[in-house]
Amino acid sequence: PAGRLRDILRRIDGRGYKAYKDCEGAYAFDDFTLIIDHAQGDPFAAPSRVRVRVAANVAGFPAGCFTTRTREVAFRDFLARGFAAAIDAAGQNRRGSGKSGQIAVARPGQEVLERSSVVVTAEHAVEVRFTVGLPARGRSVLGRQAEAIFFEDVPALVRASLLYAAVDAAALDRHLEVSEDADHLRAALHDRGLVAFVADGAVLPRASGVDDRPLKGGVPFASPPSLRVEIDLPNCGTVTGMGVPAGITLIVGGGFHGKSTLLRAIERGVYTHIPGDGREYVVADPTAVKIRAEDGRRVEQVDISPFIAGLPDGRDTRAFSTENASGSTSQAANIMEALESGTRLLLIDEDTAATNMMIRDRRMQELVADDQEPITPFIDRARALYRDLGVSTVLVIGGSGDYFDIADTVVCMQAYRPEDATARAQAIAARYASERFTSQKDGFGTFMRRVPEARSIDASKGRREAKVAADGVRGIRFGVHEVDLSAVAQVVDPAQTAAIAHGMLRAKRLMNGRSTLDEVVRAVAAEVEREGLDALTSHPVGGLATFRPFELAAALNRLRTFRAGQ
Ligand code: ADP
Ligand code: MG
Question: Is the CB of residue 418 below 6 angstroms from any atom belonging to ligand 1?
């Protein structure tokens, strides 16, 4: 019973901080069970890991929260937000200085993701994982303050956010319905021959480069009639919007007219967004991968030969490695790695692409003969990619009309409004022949799938067998190594980064000298889908969120010690 925790806290009050270890265990409160999994060893260590579990009959959430995976994930995401908001509403903690006395939970952004911070048990009990900085004065236990945390603060948070009677039921419904609709929309793309959908009325621009909430006063999206499609959704009825067809789509238009903003919304469309985000009904093929140049990255044994071959030093580009990739080689490697992981949609923005990977015009072809140029630009590969491998491309390009020759669809952004410029672009292409030589060999060809080496993945640090940590969305500290994810655009939540870090360790254990990288990352993702995020860690922790196999592969590919064979 909870009384026992009170007794312990009173007994250890004023003693050395390590005495908090005595609190570890489970305690039955009136409305919930409190589980102190791990009490920190000193006031400056990582805060203590705590769980609260509320039984189904007490929490009282309706069955509709659990009926499908989509609904359950959205339900848990909603509760995670509510719990974080309740912590905020409780205001500045009054239980000591610094992190001491602080209750914290991972803070969700604009995406609805499966989160380990809230799980539901088979019996539909709701469990929240959070951390508590156990209060200290100097290095001694402040037992009374700890008592206030566990007997006043935590129960108040539970009452405010984990009971159906306390939550905004309409907001919860909406959260579930929007998620269900978005998943439905995403699943509907393929049969309609689409790779993305942007709903009329969607607000795509963000408040700022560091604030992912919608821009106030952003011009709502309005689809061009010729690209307009209607899709029936289970909850919100029929939505209309722009369907982006499979094939090669260009987004053109003047600078500042909203091209990159549209592409970025599509790239985030692999995830579901919360009600009010503006991108609730903006979705993309779930395998879409944003591609960019990323000079300086390491590349391990990647077959980049479809794009780069015949290097002056005679190196074999079918198994290309470098410690310091150039803009074009890094972009080629990023494309080939995405193909290796099974993408069906590449998203490329001129703003972050290597020019020599994208274009090579007639004049340059005259000056530098094709057999002197190792790079086959994307323009000469995109069609074969679609025809041979079924991989579509959406490309922002404001600077090269040569691409009209290979485009299936051309969307022109004008003052944030898209127009279907396909017919005009085709007429222009017919009138002004670009006279490029197509430096195209026949098919796209096959590419290698690499087999990773387990021993090249080592997160040990000092005496610790494995120590990994997320650095926001920008990277991972993996033992003594840093994995730079700043160019991996579709890692969108620090909780994903944390989960990917653990996923890398899980992947290592599945590497057996035969399985390909693709098989390994898929196996990890499947395990998480089947068993939940807890499959990634030896003990239950909050602060993890699901990721795609693509981003796990991206992290492994960027670990500088990573080794693989073909
Ligand atoms: P481009 O890639 O065409 O140069 P961007 O997409 O970078 O243009 O957009 C330029 C600016 O316009 C950005 O600050 C962006 O936030 C803003 N913007 C984009 N779309 C909209 C919109 N629908 N309503 C209002 N502002 C927008
Ligand atoms: Mg741009």
Answer: no
CA of 496 to the centre of ligand 2 (A): 26
Model confidence pLDDT, tens digit, residues 163-178 = 999 999 999 999 999 9
Tracing tokens 């599945």 back to the chain, one arrives at: 510
The interface predicted TM-score (ipTM) is 0.99
Q: Is residue 172 part of a domain?
A: no
Q: In what order do the strands lie in the sheet with 475-478?
A: 468-471, 475-478, 481-484
Residues 156, 219: one domain?
Answer: no
pLDDT (tens digit per residue) in 52-86? 999 999 999 999 999 999 999 999 999 999 999 99
For residues 71 and 154, is the Cβ–Cβ distance under 8 A? no
**Dist. CA 524–CA 543, nearest whole Å:** 18
Average pLDDT, the chain: 95
What is the pTM assigned to this prediction?
Answer: 0.96
Binding site membership of 204 for ligand 1 (Cβ less than 6 Å): yes
From the CA of 492, how far away is ligand 2's center (Å)? 20
Expressed as residue numbers, the domain containing 493 is 451-565
pLDDT of residue 99: 65
pLDDT tens readout for residues 209-232: 999 999 999 999 999 999 999 999
Q: How many domains would you assign to the chain?
A: 3
Burial class for 324, CB neighbours closer than 10 Å (0-12, 13-18, 19+): exposed
DSSP 8-state assignment for residue 117: T
HSE, side-chain direction, 13 A CA sphere, residue 415: 0
**Does 8 lie in the same domain as 156?**
yes
